[in-house]
Amino acid sequence: QTGAAAVWYGGLTGAGLLGILRCTGWLLGAGTLRGSRVQTVVLALALLTVLCSGIAALREPMLARRLSWVACGQGAAAVFGAAMAARGAFAGTILTLLFGGLAEALVFLGADAFRAKAGKAAVRQLDGIGRQMPLTLFCFAMGALVLAGLPPLGGFSALWLLAGGALGGSALEQAGAGVLLAGALCRAGALIPPVARGFFPGAAYEPDTRVHRGWCLAIPLVLLTGG
Fold first, then answer.
1. SS3 for 122?
2. Spatial CB neighbours of 138, under 8 Å, sequence gap ≥ 6
3. Cα 8–89–44 angle (5° rounding)?
4. Residue 35: is it exposed, middle or buried by C-beta count within 10 angstroms (0-12/13-18/19+)?
5. Assessment of whether the complete model's pTM goes beyond 0.85
6. Is the pLDDT at 138 greater than 70, yes or no?
7. How many CA atoms lie within 13 A of 66 on its CB side?
């Protein structure tokens, strides 16, 4: 399931949004969308999705479902940037789709490796997983940092452009800049602590020897991390 989710969130959702953008640009044009009621509704729904998915990610105990909520928030942020119909925000949308897609594929493949190689499917089970699967957790951590929008990775560039485009727009778009930041903080809170506990589980940690080592999943993880 997580392997299929890597393809779905990492590529298909971005391709669908790009198709909508191209069709909307050809048929209507950015000037037609800007200032309309349709734009207001899309902006409001996108911001609501960013906020709600971030809160849901914080509360979700299962890793794959938590990642799904995170990916949902990333997609909503891209929709928000596209609906602003501004040049800077559009650049942020493209970068969100590019780096977000790579990072989502990366973390879902990492979650699949944790489940397949170590039988770890819940977030609380990741404590100390960096002792058994250091490369996998490192790659997962890089994807998590991108999705959290932390510098100097590509996720920060995308978030910066989206927020910058929002600050130069309407009152709703300006408020959206704060919502985008809140969503990024929620994603950071959902993804960074499990990574930290994976590398630093504490003194009470007992090693789990039920880890099946192999390099089949390491190759795509390393390639996506490089991207």
1. strand
2. 130, 225
3. 75
4. exposed
5. no
6. yes
7. 24
